[in-house]
Automatic annotation (TrEMBL):
<dbReference type="InterPro" id="IPR036259">
    <property type="entry name" value="MFS_trans_sf"/>
</dbReference>
<keyword id="KW-0472">Membrane</keyword>
<feature type="transmembrane region" description="Helical">
    <location>
        <begin position="12"/>
        <end position="38"/>
    </location>
</feature>
<protein>
    <submittedName>
        <fullName>Predicted arabinose efflux permease, MFS family</fullName>
    </submittedName>
</protein>
<feature type="transmembrane region" description="Helical">
    <location>
        <begin position="282"/>
        <end position="303"/>
    </location>
</feature>
<feature type="transmembrane region" description="Helical">
    <location>
        <begin position="50"/>
        <end position="69"/>
    </location>
</feature>
<feature type="transmembrane region" description="Helical">
    <location>
        <begin position="105"/>
        <end position="128"/>
    </location>
</feature>
<keyword id="KW-0812">Transmembrane</keyword>
<feature type="transmembrane region" description="Helical">
    <location>
        <begin position="81"/>
        <end position="99"/>
    </location>
</feature>
<dbReference type="InterPro" id="IPR011701">
    <property type="entry name" value="MFS"/>
</dbReference>
<feature type="transmembrane region" description="Helical">
    <location>
        <begin position="220"/>
        <end position="243"/>
    </location>
</feature>
<feature type="transmembrane region" description="Helical">
    <location>
        <begin position="255"/>
        <end position="275"/>
    </location>
</feature>
<feature type="domain" description="Major facilitator superfamily (MFS) profile">
    <location>
        <begin position="12"/>
        <end position="396"/>
    </location>
</feature>
<dbReference type="InterPro" id="IPR050327">
    <property type="entry name" value="Proton-linked_MCT"/>
</dbReference>
<feature type="transmembrane region" description="Helical">
    <location>
        <begin position="373"/>
        <end position="392"/>
    </location>
</feature>
<dbReference type="GO" id="GO:0022857">
    <property type="term" value="F:transmembrane transporter activity"/>
</dbReference>
<feature type="transmembrane region" description="Helical">
    <location>
        <begin position="309"/>
        <end position="334"/>
    </location>
</feature>
């Protein structure tokens, strides 16, 4: 099944640049939240589990809202969805700065910010790219968008730490909220929605998801993406605090997150390039296997600045390199018509993993005073996800969405 590539309203490079900046701002902000774990929880008198629960809910809400955000972008256009998401995202981060207790923090950092991240996410940006980019270039362009997200993490980690040092954690969040408002004007470049090809049904939301879920390879892809979320969210939220626990400074923690973002630029671009040349499912299996090896190696050596940065570099190469491959497989299976929605469903699994990783990290730390059990679980899950991806069949689904509505 094929869907014709839409004619872009603006030159393709303009669309790609605007989308990449949106991805950088949105994901960069999200990547900086781990820097607030210690100052915010100490100032508000929160346990690590309470802070982790707010971040876990954020990830879960992000995942729940992502398929709907993708579906609205498919049907009504990416620009409107991204602009609305940028506003909600900024309001949520602004509200975080003035949340006096765990309940209000859960509402602002968890619920509102989670919705904002979903609606202004790089998933919606990639759905827009999938609509206007020729099929043979999609994997590479998805890699570029993912690399832009990583560049945002590299920029916002030291920027966020600098804001905290200069203004305190509350005003740092206010300034970040102001930056998020830039998404609104940038979204205008991504106008348009995906059109049906002749004879293709315009399936309702649940019918399209049910039909896609009947495809075994898609189910395996969705299940395996859970592990990606577990790894990323646990490391992103708890790694800075873990390094402080090991005797390193908060600045090392912030630069560790930045190094992950820096090396993920290369990893995402390489993943997108390889995804157009090698079997995507084999590349995904390799990425998850190497993550397990990297975590195991990190636990076997003493924690120093050198080993922290080395681990960050290794994980950075493997960080979001799963995204262009996963998005590429979803588009290959079902075409770009429902890409936003069906990638969003896969991303929901990713965010369930994120919820578990962030929440479990806080619980285990509060109960044991250590993150070791979660690190070991990360190794086991990495190996399991590598095995799950091996049976995936890289081919389009015959007859998807061609039934009468």
């Amino acid at each position: 099944m094929t869907t014709a590539t839409a004619r872009p309203a603006l030159p393709l490079p303009v669309i790609i640049v605007a989308g990449c900046i949106i991805a950088a701002i949105g994901f960069g902000t999200r990547g900086a939240f781990g820097l607030f774990t210690l100052p915010a929880s100490e100032d508000l008198g929160l346990t690590r589990e309470q802070w982790g629960m707010a971040m876990a809910i954020q990830n879960l809400v992000w995942g729940i809202a992502q398929p709907f955000a993708g579906g609205f972008a498919d049907r009504y256009g990416s620009a409107r969805v991204l602009a609305f998401g940028g506003l909600i995202y900024a309001l949520g981060v602004f509200g975080m700065a003035f949340s006096p207790d765990v309940l209000s923090l859960t509402l602002t950092a968890g619920l509102v910010t989670g919705v904002g991240i979903a609606v202004a996410s790089f998933g919606v940006v990639m759905a827009a790219f999938g609509r206007v980019v020729p099929a043979e270039k999609r994997s590479l362009v998805f890699g570029v968008a993912t690399a832009a997200s990583s560049a945002g993490q590299f920029i916002f980690a030291p920027l966020g730490q600098g804001f905290i040092g200069a203004f305190g954690w509350q005003m740092a969040l206010v300034w970040i909220a102001v930056i998020l408002l830039l998404i609104i004007p940038l979204s205008a470049a991504l106008r348009g929605r995906t059109e049906n090809t002749p004879g293709q049904a315009d399936l309702p939301f649940m019918q399209a998801i049910a039909q896609a879920w009947g495809h075994g390879s898609y189910r395996l892809l969705v299940i395996g993406f859970f592990v990606c979320g577990f790894h990323l969210a646990f490391i992103n939220v708890h790694m800075p605090a873990y390094l402080v626990q090991c005797g390193l400074s908060p600045e090392v923690g912030s630069w560790t997150i930045a190094v992950i973002g820096l090396f993920n630029i290369a990893g995402s671009l390489l993943s997108g390039w390889l995804g157009s040349r090698l079997p995507k499912q084999m590349l995904l299996a390799t990425i998850y296997f190497l993550r397990a090896i990297a975590i195991a190696a990190f636990l076997l050596v003493p924690v120093t600045e050198v080993t922290a940065y080395a681990f960050a570099a290794a994980m950075g190469l493997l960080w979001l390199s799963t995204v262009p491959l996963t998005a590429g497989l979803v588009t290959l299976f079902f075409g770009p018509r429902y890409m936003g929605m069906l990638y969003g469903l896969a991303f929901f699994s990713h965010q369930v993993g994120s919820f578990v990783g962030v929440w479990l990290g806080g619980v285990v730390y509060d109960q044991t005073g250590s993150y070791s059990l979660v690190w070991y679980l990360g190794i086991i899950l990495g190996l399991a996800s590598a095995a799950i991806h091996l049976p995936i069949n890289e081919r389009s689904v015959s007859g998807f969405a061609l039934k009468s509505a």
